Amino acid sequence: MKEDVHDLLRESEERFRTMADTAPVLLWMAGTDGLCTFFNQRWLAFTGRPMEKEMANGWAEGVHPEDFQHCMSTYLSAFVDRQAFRMEYRLRRADGQYRWLLDTGVPRYTPSGLFEGYIGSCIDVTELKEAREQLEARVRDRTVELQAANRELEAFSYAVAHDLRAPLRAVGGFARILISDYREHLDSDGKDCLDEIGKGAARMAELIDALLSLARLQRSELRTARVDLSALAHEVLKELNLAAPRGRCECLVAEHLQAQMDARLARALLENLLGNAWKFTSKVAVPRVEFGVTQRSGIRAFFVRDNGAGFDPAHANMLFGPFQRLHTAAEFPGTGIGLATVQRIVHRHGGQVWAEGQVGEGACFYFTLGRES
Q1: Residue ranges, CATH 1.10.287, the chain
Q2: How far does CA 85 lie from the centroid of its chain?
Q3: Eight-state DSSP code of residue 169
Q4: What mean pLDDT is predicted for residues 336-353?
């Protein structure tokens, strides 16, 4: 009987060694003391060292000096806690070149639950790691280029908008002179033309001011502090009601909402979002505007919701572009810059902004603040 058991054990061990030595990865095993007791032929061929040199801690002689401390610390910490681990380190190949290995180790147990040590496998990820590093370098370079291009574009927009102001003021000024001094000499068509010139100049001045404001927003330095968004929302809604009174409007503001933000930009953010909600509910019998907070994918998301005109969700991607409007100026006045401003404010605070809505059923604008504490 003992001979039968011995034969079975020897057969099992031989089968294991055959499988291990023909495996396409580097395999190792360690005992309960953390010292290595086995390496397959793939490992030995990789290092070019005999089994007796690799046994115990001998294998660690081939670890790159810069990776040695991290490698040992990761292995020993996992060993003490009996936890699986994954780590990358450089190991010297037989030709003297260091190669990056991805080493995965898992604890071994007997059928009765007794800890027996570890078994691990390594794969050469040098080419993959180099490709990843090259890709990251290209992304960094591209990001730098895009940031430079954005700065140039912002500077160009600012310069153009600033330089347009003077000739535009001249157009508006001369139109006003004609209306004031020569109106009685013009027929009705001439008066209408002058009125349109004046309106067009005023509209253009408004757009230029909006462009300059958008450009300044990108340039200004962030000064963050703890901002009471609930109190700010109450203030903005009060100002909106003074500017455009509503007989009946249900205004709901969740209390005690705070965030780490630039206070000036926080006001601009809520002025634009609540201002939009106020504007687009102007034709609703019982308007409702709400400011609150919810959870989206485990992240706190603030929102401004209304029951106004809404929008076609198929065009939601157009909402945050400068001068992109889903309603005509005749329906609802505005410059088309407000939501672009909102997006830039949110992005400058490390967050995201998006919108949901349906035509005639209102809209809801959400924003997160990635840097809030």
Answers
A1: 130-219
A2: 29
A3: H
A4: 84
Domain with CATH 3.30.565.10 in the chain: 222-373
Region 336-361: mean pLDDT is 84
What are the backbone angles phi and psi of residue 242, rounded to the nearest 5°? -70, -40
Whether the Cβ atoms of residue 126 and residue 35 lie closer than 8 Å to each other: no
Please state, in angstroms and rounded to a whole number, the distance separating the CA atoms of residues 51 and 243: 85
Q: Which of 370, 338, 339 is nearest to 352 (CA)?
A: 370
Q: Give pairs for 347-350: CB < 8 Å, separation 24+.
A: 348/217, 348/218, 348/222, 348/262, 348/265, 349/222, 349/224, 349/261, 349/262, 349/265
User: What is the model's pTM?
Assistant: 0.50
Token output for 130: 């180099």
Mapping DSSP to helix (H, G, I), strand (E, B) and coil, where does residue 96 land? coil
User: What is the fold of 2-124?
Assistant: Beta-Lactamase (3.30.450)
CATH dotted code for 222-373: 3.30.565.10
Q: Could you tell me which residues are beta bridge partners of residue 304?
A: 291, 365
